[in-house]
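Postdoc handover notes: sequence design on the structure in folder B. Input tokens:
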């Protein structure tokens, strides 16, 4: 590579410096580094080698000291201008197509699209240096992204076809990378002699004179490199015959191959057994810079009758696709790998110094085949020469679209036939020179450069990829220097040459008679061919010399264009409609149309072969002349099989094409090539794409290459980093969806990125009439690379699907491209309630109605009157059993902080009542807010209020660290409940009046605040007795999950009825101990904490949930310590224990925690039971003796806080599986466990005594039948009497608390719970001997999402999203306008946030048939959760709309 304005060729710089300079030059030309930065780095690199002399350029000094290379040796590497910054792959470039794309874009007016928002820290800007690793791993102008992204034949760690001549690991390979090119020649003799068996080689060895030395200028290179010289090399013979030999500087190739064969056959294992026997497979691991050693190894294996398996050099343990290569080696039974000394030193090592074992690879013995490691055979030893025509000669690997790697076995007969066919088709002659830029280990590079060249005794000049990177013109210079008659290149190499050719005047290509374009099967290669011809026609290149060919691993060379002097017909091209091609038909179109594809022929099929075109799918029927299909070949040159895979071998290698009538076309089987195309005039083959790049969207077929070409044509300003684009399809909702991933330049702004993505979407939509499902941009140099620098498509796809691609920008467009969603549900006119009942009767279904045990009528007895008012009960207990302990409060250390016996509680309550009447001067009926932490003060204050006739309202105290959000709720409840006084502790009173509180609320408007810490001991004159049981006892306020603050009124009658039902269900007696870990502020938690102990007389062990934050095992320890038979907790407590203690059961056991005493552990909640959590909790603590049947759930709601409780008697809870799709249509369809779309539902405990439940239709309010989904209505003595609101919304109250059925039993008054569920009669019997009716709660009616005419429950969508990726900590969904918004908490790095966007969209589409409108990625803890562990989705929605979530990323799916 030349320095700007000053040649450096003469300076003997080390190879690594030359490499660094080349990379610097490339970075400057790409715009990845500033001019100033370039000069600074360059000066630093050259400082050691060219000391500065005043007034003279160091490189000029060096030039004056060192004579330049002699003109007779090799052409000088001329200074070349920097490559232009527009580095789109010219094979994809077509001026017509670029104009078409710009015209298509011009049609779109500027549409306002919502731009994704991203947190600054998530941008993680990185410098160009950070994005551009050294050349050992990076490939500039990478071919893989720019040509067919998914190939049939691929290099080991890549999914690309054919071969790539570059070497991504120039420095790590072999020291023979030193020479500018490796040259091999095979001396005279006729092709007939070349077919002699290997045995003849020994006799020929001494007969030939030294070959002409064509490596004079390369023996001691004077330019950039100073490594050991590369010897000219001879090529040994393939198994089926080539007899030639070559004297070289390092010895004869024939003798080296013979030595290797002898060494291999006589190599012993540690047990003194032969390591190899004929027919064994051997891996060849050689860098692309060492054709000589590879050839020695290849022919050495053939002479020893071993089967070589050439693979790429593994650079790291985590190379893309490396595991699949390991699977191939394992399935081939490879135990030995051949390599060079230099290459082995560069391989990753284990701590022992041995070569590391790569993931998925079998154990390998590594054999270095440099001369000193080989054993010289005895003079009388000759390789056996039996004919092995049908035996496998070598195995070439191929990576499929999905990333799996298979080995294609080529027989000796096929290998020989291929060499003969190529000789005839290409007119190869003895002593001709072939310049090869391809990978010589596989595909065309192997067939032409290693096999056919030996047969014809040709000279081969191999140009390694490392040299092409430094000097893209090197192959043209070699053609010119050696007057090469043939050159083997890819369109990428032609494109590079175009960018570098300016300033090269003395280049002549007139010697070429064939320029074989190996990737001619890529339809976009025509643009490179045309551009190359235009530029180099003036340098002697004739148009007929350009010969595109089509190859595939299964059929080897399929077709190749012959020059006219070899009898080839004139070349042709076709301008085809892309719309027609997408439907699989050929429609010739006008070139000025927008959506056309111009393709060139790839010549005729190989000599002796026949070809046909068959349907891609199903039976291989022959295509009509105007149809595109898969090309199939019948030829003796085709490969034999996929090694070890009989099934797919039969479908690919033994296809029998049939006519429409079903008659076979031939009695010989054909081989499928994976190439899509048609046969044109003069029997010319035209290829329009590859099966591996095919994406079927709807009924239309699109080619990945065509999409790449359109994307590259969008922006003249170069946005895509080095043109690296990957296109593949993923299956979502039973159809292929197109995904486009591009590397963006490091300096691209958010605005640039989004603008480019929008324009690409518009262009592809206009040109191809197809929507792109996902467009992702990743930082430069981060896509997984194939060994030779290309993008590894299948690995990229895998990373995308696993959520580890880490894009920096994502644009999802599911709304436009998902067109196969089921039709929205059309709601039919509802069947009337009367018809519904009649229908159920006819079907033999009973009405869905159930009730708990009957409460015995004890209203007239003394006991009933005594237990009618809780204050009376407390007084009675204080009088009859004064020292009986009722409450026991624990702190985080497990010590008892306070206790209350019956008399202590009574006296405390009296003191509070006295303070209220005397200090606050409150009269009966006044409302009092109780703002206490969980503890006994709250209970005493509650009974104190009842003693003086006041109505208590329990309120959760504000959180000192979070006043801004918690204090307004306290203030709102105090105001809405019209509380005349606030009772609290001194600490909380100070907090309510603090400066911090004043910043949030108006502290002057608080009612009277009394602290009860130091109230005097006073006896109350008389305890208030309510005039009627229907008088209001207390107000129960809570915030629902939909964000509504609702207070319900509980009368004295309802309160005592509630306590009575719970006592009967749970068998609570004074001798019992119950452990409670619940918040005591509302619902069943409040009733259990404050009411039940006083009513039933049992002892309650109180564990405040906040204490678990510092000691997570406190609750379980308390249950064990106090041998509690019954315990209550919330889902949040259960989750805390499952997460925090799951791995510590052994530690807990040593501390004496034993849960075998527990009979029932009930989770208090107002939602569908969380089966996964309860089951995992049961399994985790089974080791501590927790009975498997102990854990159950409860159900309550605003209108009735306790409808179901499992209790201690009755059958175990039952679980059923329902079809989620039916639930969306408000139907219940029971299915088997494990069936698709099944959802487990468990019953929410047993219906309490005195409670009646019926299922009513949500709209007609008629009763429903058994196992029908409807709203749960409840009738019971402990129903709340109504909502308490300041203005008393009578309509709302009547609707919820006094509903009547529209048909049937119209007299009973019911309360509507607002929950959907169903009743099902089971085969079990309850305590009364009747069959048990199970109640299943499905979800809250207020929370359901009405989308596409169906009813969705947020919890189901959230469960799918949480399963989508391990980084999803929590999730919540809600609707905004008509869009579904998914908020995801990310438990991982911010850089990983964008991976979740596609996964979330995919899983919701796949499982729920819904298109996600907005994906919001937030930090853990952002989704608000109440004390019961329920998500506050409406609070979250308000925060989203007010832009208060501080999201990491917000993606608007278009």
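Designed sequence:
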């Amino acid at each position: 590579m030349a320095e700007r304005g000053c040649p450096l060729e003469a300076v003997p710089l080390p190879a690594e410096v030359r490499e660094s300079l080349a990379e610097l030059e490339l970075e400057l030309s790409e715009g990845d580094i500033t001019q100033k930065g370039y000069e600074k780095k360059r000066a630093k690199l050259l400082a050691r080698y060219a000391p500065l002399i005043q007034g003279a350029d160091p490189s000029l000094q060096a030039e004056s000291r060192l004579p330049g290379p002699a003109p007779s040796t090799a052409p000088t590497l001329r200074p070349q201008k920097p490559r232009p910054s527009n580095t789109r792959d010219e094979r994809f470039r077509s001026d017509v197509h670029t104009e078409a794309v710009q015209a298509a874009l011009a049609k779109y007016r500027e549409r306002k699209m919502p731009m994704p928002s991203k947190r600054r820290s998530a941008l993680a800007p990185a410098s160009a240096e950070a994005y551009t690793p050294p050349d050992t791993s990076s490939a500039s102008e990478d071919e893989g992204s720019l040509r067919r992204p998914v190939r049939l034949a691929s290099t080991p760690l890549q999914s690309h076809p054919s071969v790539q001549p570059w070497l991504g690991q120039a420095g790590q390979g072999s020291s023979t990378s030193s020479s500018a090119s490796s040259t091999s020649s095979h001396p005279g003799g006729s092709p007939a002699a070349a077919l002699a068996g290997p045995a003849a080689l020994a006799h020929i060895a001494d007969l030939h004179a030294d070959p002409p030395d064509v490596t004079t200028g390369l023996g001691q290179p004077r330019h950039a490199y100073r490594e050991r010289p590369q010897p000219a090399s001879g090529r040994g013979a393939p198994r089926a015959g080539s007899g030639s030999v070559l004297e070289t500087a390092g010895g004869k190739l024939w003798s080296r191959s013979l030595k290797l064969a002898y060494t291999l056959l006589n190599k012993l294992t540690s047990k003194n057994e032969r390591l190899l026997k004929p027919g064994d497979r051997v891996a060849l691991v050689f860098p692309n810079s060492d054709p000589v050693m590879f050839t020695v190894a290849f022919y050495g294996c053939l002479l020893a009758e071993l089967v070589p398996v050439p693979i790429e050099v593994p650079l790291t343990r985590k190379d893309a696709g490396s595991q699949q290569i390991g699977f191939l080696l394992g399935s081939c039974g490879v135990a030995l790998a051949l390599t060079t000394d230099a290459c082995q030193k560069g391989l990753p090592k284990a701590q022992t110094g041995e070569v590391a074992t790569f993931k998925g690879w079998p154990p390998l013995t590594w054999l270095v085949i440099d001369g000193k490691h080989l054993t010289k055979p005895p003079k009388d030893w000759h390789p056996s020469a039996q004919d092995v025509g049908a035996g496998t000669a070598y195995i070439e690997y191929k990576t499929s679209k999905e990333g799996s790697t298979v080995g294609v076995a080529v027989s000796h007969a096929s290998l020989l036939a291929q060499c003969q066919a190529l000789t005839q088709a290409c007119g190869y002659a003895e002593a001709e020179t072939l310049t090869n830029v391809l990978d010589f280990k596989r595909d065309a590079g192997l067939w032409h450069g290693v096999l056919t060249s030996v047969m014809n005794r040709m000279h081969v000049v191999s140009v390694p990829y490392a040299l092409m990177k430094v000097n893209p013109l090197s192959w043209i210079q070699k053609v010119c220097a050696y007057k090469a008659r043939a050159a083997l290149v890819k369109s990428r190499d032609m494109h590079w040459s175009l960018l570098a050719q300016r300033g090269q005047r003395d280049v002549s290509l007139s010697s070429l008679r064939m320029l074989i374009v190996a990737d001619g099967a890529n339809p976009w290669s025509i643009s490179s061919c045309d551009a190359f011809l235009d530029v180099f026609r003036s340098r002697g290149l004739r148009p007929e010399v350009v010969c595109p060919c089509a190859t595939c691993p299964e059929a080897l060379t399929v077709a190749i264009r012959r020059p006219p002097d070899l009898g080839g017909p004139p070349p042709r091209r076709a301008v085809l409609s892309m719309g027609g091609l997408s439907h699989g038909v050929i429609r010739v179109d006008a070139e000025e149309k927008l959506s056309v594809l111009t393709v060139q022929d790839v010549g005729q099929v190989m000599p002796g072969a026949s070809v046909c075109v068959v349907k891609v799918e199903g039976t291989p029927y022959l295509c009509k002349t105007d149809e595109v299909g898969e090309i199939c070949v019948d030829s003796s040159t085709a490969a034999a099989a996929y090694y070890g895979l009989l099934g797919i071998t039969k479908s690919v290698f033994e296809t029998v094409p049939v006519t429409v009538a079903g008659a076979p076309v031939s009695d010989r089987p054909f081989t499928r090539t994976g190439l899509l195309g048609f046969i044109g005039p003069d029997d010319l083959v035209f290829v329009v794409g590859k099966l591996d790049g095919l994406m079927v969207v709807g009924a239309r077929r699109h080619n990945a290459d065509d999409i790449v070409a359109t994307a590259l044509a969008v922006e003249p300003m170069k946005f895509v980093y080095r043109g690296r684009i990957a296109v593949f399809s993923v299956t979502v909702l039973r159809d292929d969806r197109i995904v486009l991933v591009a590397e963006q330049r490091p300096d691209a702004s958010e605005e640039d990125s989004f603008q480019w993505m929008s324009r690409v979407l518009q262009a592809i939509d206009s040109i191809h009439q197809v929507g792109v499902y996902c467009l992702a941009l990743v930082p430069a140099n981060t896509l997984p690379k194939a060994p030779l620098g290309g993008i590894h498509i299948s690995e990229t796809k895998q990373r995308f699907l696993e959520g580890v691609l880490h894009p920096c920008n994502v644009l999802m467009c599911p709304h436009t491209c998902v067109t196969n969603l089921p039709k929205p549900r059309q709601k039919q006119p509802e069947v009337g309630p009367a018809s519904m009942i009649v229908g159920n009767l006819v079907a033999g279904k009973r009405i869905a109605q159930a009730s708990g045990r009957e409460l015995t009528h004890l209203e007239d007895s003394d006991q009933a009157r005594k237990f009618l008012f809780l204050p009376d009960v407390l007084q009675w207990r204080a009088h009859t059993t004064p020292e009986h302990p009722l409450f026991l409060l624990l702190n985080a250390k497990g010590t008892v902080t306070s206790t209350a016996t019956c008399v202590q509680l009574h006296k405390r309550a009296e003191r509070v009542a006295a303070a209220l009447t005397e200090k606050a001067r409150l009269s009966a009926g006044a409302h009092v807010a109780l703002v206490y932490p969980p503890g006994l003060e709250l209970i005493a204050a509650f009974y104190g209020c009842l003693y003086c006739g006041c109505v208590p309202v329990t309120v959760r105290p504000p959180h000192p660290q979070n006043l801004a959000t918690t204090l307004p709720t306290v203030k709102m409840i105090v105001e809405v409940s019209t509380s005349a006084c606030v009772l609290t502790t001194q600490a909380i009173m100070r907090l309510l009046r603090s400066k911090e509180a004043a910043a949030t609320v108006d502290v002057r408007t608080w009612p009277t605040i009394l602290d009860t810490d130091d109230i005097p001991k006073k006896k109350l004159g008389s305890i208030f007795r309510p005039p009627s049981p229907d008088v209001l006892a207390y107000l129960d306020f809570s915030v629902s999950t939909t964000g509504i603050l609702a207070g319900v009124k509980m009368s004295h009658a309802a309160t005592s009825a509630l306590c009575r039902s719970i006592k009967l269900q749970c068998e609570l007696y004074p001798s019992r101990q119950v452990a409670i870990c619940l918040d005591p502020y509302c619902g069943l938690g409040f009733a259990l904490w404050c009411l039940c102990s006083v009513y039933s007389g049992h002892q309650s062990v109180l564990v405040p949930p906040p204490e678990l934050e510092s000691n997570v095992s406190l609750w379980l320890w308390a249950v064990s310590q106090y041998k509690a038979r019954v315990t209550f907790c919330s889902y949040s407590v259960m989750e805390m224990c499952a997460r925090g203690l799951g791995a510590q059961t052994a530690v807990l056991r040593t501390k004496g925690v034993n849960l075998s005493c527990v009979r029932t552990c009930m989770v208090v909640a107002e939602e569908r039971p969380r089966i996964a959590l309860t089951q995992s909790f049961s399994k985790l603590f089974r080791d501590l003796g927790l009975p498997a049947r102990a854990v159950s759930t409860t159900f309550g709601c605003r209108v009735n806080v306790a409808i179901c409780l499992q209790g201690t008697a009755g059958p175990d809870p039952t679980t059923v599986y329902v079809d989620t799709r039916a639930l969306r249509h408000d139907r219940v369809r029971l299915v088997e466990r494990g069936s698709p779309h099944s959802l487990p539902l468990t019953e929410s405990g047993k219906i309490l005594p005195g409670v009646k439940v019926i299922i009513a239709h949500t709209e007609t309010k008629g009763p429903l039948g058994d196992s029908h989904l409807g709203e749960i209505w409840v009738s019971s003595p402990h129903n709340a009497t109504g909502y308490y609101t300041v203005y008393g919304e009578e309509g709302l109250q009547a609707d919820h608390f006094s509903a009547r059925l529209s048909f049937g039993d119209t007299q009973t008054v019911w309360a509507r719970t607002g929950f959907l569920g169903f009743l099902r009669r089971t085969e079990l019997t309850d305590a009364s001997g009747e069959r048990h009716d199970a109640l299943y709660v499905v979800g809250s009616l207020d929370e359901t999402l009405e989308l596409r005419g169906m009813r969705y429950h947020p919890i189901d969508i959230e469960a799918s999203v949480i399963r989508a990726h391990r980084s999803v900590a929590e999730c919540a969904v809600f609707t905004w306008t008509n869009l579904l918004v998914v908020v995801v908490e990310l438990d991982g790095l911010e850089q990983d946030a964008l991976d979740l966007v596609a996964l979330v969209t995919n899983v919701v589409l796949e499982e729920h048939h819904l298109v996600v409108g907005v994906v919001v990625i937030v930090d853990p803890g952002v989704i608000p959760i109440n004390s019961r562990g329920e998500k506050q989705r409406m609070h979250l929605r308000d925060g989203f709309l007010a832009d208060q979530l501080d999201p990491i990323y917000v993606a608007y799916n278009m």
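Context for whoever picks this up: The first strand starts at residue 117 and ends at 118. Don't rerun without checking with the PI first.
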